[in-house]
Each structure stands twice: as C-alpha cells, then as structure tokens.
Amino acid sequence: MLGFGTRLFEDVACLIYDCLDWRRQHQHYLNNMRLVQVPSVPRAGARTTQDSPAEMVQTTTPQTPGSKKRQAQEETTPDPEPAALSTDVDMRYYNDLLDQIPPEASSVPLILHCMLEQVVATEQDIPPLSAADSEKGVYSLEKSLADYMLSAVMSLPRSDQEKKRLRETFGAVENTQQKTEHQRPLLINCHDERALRLHHLP
What we know:
Helix content is 56%, strand content 0%. The chain is mostly helical.
C-alpha cells in the first residue's frame, strides 16, 4: 500500500511539474510574441464607406452643468486617418521590362529586378517604356516599313548613284541576309540550360 501511494505521489508530482513547465513556456511565448498589424487593402469597387465621427448620429440628452463639463472633456480631436490603400498599382514599367524578355528566359532574380525598377520608376516619376514609344506614334512603324522596303530595293539591280541617293535619303540599312550568312554556327554544350535559354538574346 505504501509503494502504491509513493508511485501515485510521484506521478501527480511529475504531472504538476510538467504543467508548470508548459505554463512557463507559454508565458515565454506570449512575452516574446510580436504582432504586426497588416493594413487591409480593399479592392476596386468594393470599398466600404465608413461614417466619420461628425456624421454619426448623436442622441440628445438633457444637459446639466456637470454633463457639459463631461462632454467638453470627452470631445477630443479625432486621429488623422491613414491614407487609403488600394490594389491598383502602376505596373506598366514592370510589364514593359518583362515583355522584352521571352518567358523561357525569365528567372526569379530578373523578376525581382523588374519589381525594383518599377518601385524606382514610381518614386521618381519615370515614364514607362510604352509611353515613350507611344510618343513616337506611327513614325516608328513607318520607319520599320521604310527600312524593310529599302533593304528590298537595295537588293535589286540598281546603279550606284541611285543606291547612294537612297542611302542618303532614308539612311544606311545593313543587309541582314548577308550578316546572317557570315555568322558561324551556334554551338551549345550538352546540359547547358542557361545557354539554351539565352542563346537568342543579343
């Protein structure tokens, strides 16, 4: 009987000490826990309007000298509301940078770099690349067509004077066909995934 009582006392004592240890760990967790309030960003078209303190309906109560003093003490200047956040973010610079890179050549460092460039462009009010292209208008399209037509005309049997006059009028155009003929064959080592993905980039 004495042995049973000893074992029971030891079991209960161990359970009590374990509970104290768990409580100490939980208290340590609560003391070292830091909660960061993340602001909620409403989506476009789903913003809920909140009534300002001035628009709230106030119930009229019989005023007494004591109540007037109490109301004067309770009236305080409202805290300035933080700027409303929105999911509508200017991503034109980011999209313009990624549009220049083929999807198979994209990587995590490249995407992070484009995101940082978008942040810098937003802070410094740098116009996106698409806006710069739109300022040129149709001229850029006509320039490309003129270069193509000029390269086609230069391949025809023309006199040197006519070719010289065309070069001076429209500008010198490199013959891409002759340029590709002088290029050497592209050699890619086996299992070279980076060269396989980026060989078409200049």
